[in-house]
Amino acid sequence: MAHGWNNVRMAEHKVSRSIVIDAPAARVFDLLSDPSRHHEFDGSGTVRDSTFGPERLTEDAEFGMNMRMFGVSYRMVNRVVDFEKDRRVAWKTAGPQRWCYELEELPEGGTRVTETFDYSRGPWFVHILLGFPAKNAAAMERTLLRLRELTETR
Fold first, then answer.
1. Which of 16, 25, 31, 109 has the fewest other C-beta atoms within 10 Å?
2. In the 3-class helix/strand/coil scheme, how is the chain assigned residue by residue?
3. What is the pTM of this model?
């Protein structure tokens, strides 16, 4: 079964994946803006749980996550740098990288959700050397499928 991946970019030191979800943008955004639920749809397997932050993300909100990568546990502090309710939320990690979710309600129904990892700010060559663009793309595909599952089956 095709999952509808499109808007695939691995240029400009950004990686993106998109999927169409049969749910209104408000429902999808509600899940994305709740940091305590990020571990439920994370396809990378690195997000464990939230450690602090608001119940709902807003512009400039800070939130923390317990993470685990390569067998090492650590905490990540993020700050929301772009926020438009029901349309877009982006946060900056402890480094200069940014994660962004953009939502577009479609005229025929449903919502196109695009997840982007922007590693253009900072040492982008490290991401390439470690193979993160391909790893991020695969994780995004799993993330978007989980997001679809969580928001379509309500």
1. 109
2. CCCCCEEEECCCCEEEEEEEECCCHHHHHHHHCCHHHHHHHCCCCCEEEEEECCCCCCCCCEEEEEEEECCEEEEEEEEEEEEECCCEEEEECCCCCEEEEEEEECCCCCEEEEEEEECCCCCHHHHHHCCHHHHHHHHHHHHHHHHHHHHHCC
3. 0.83
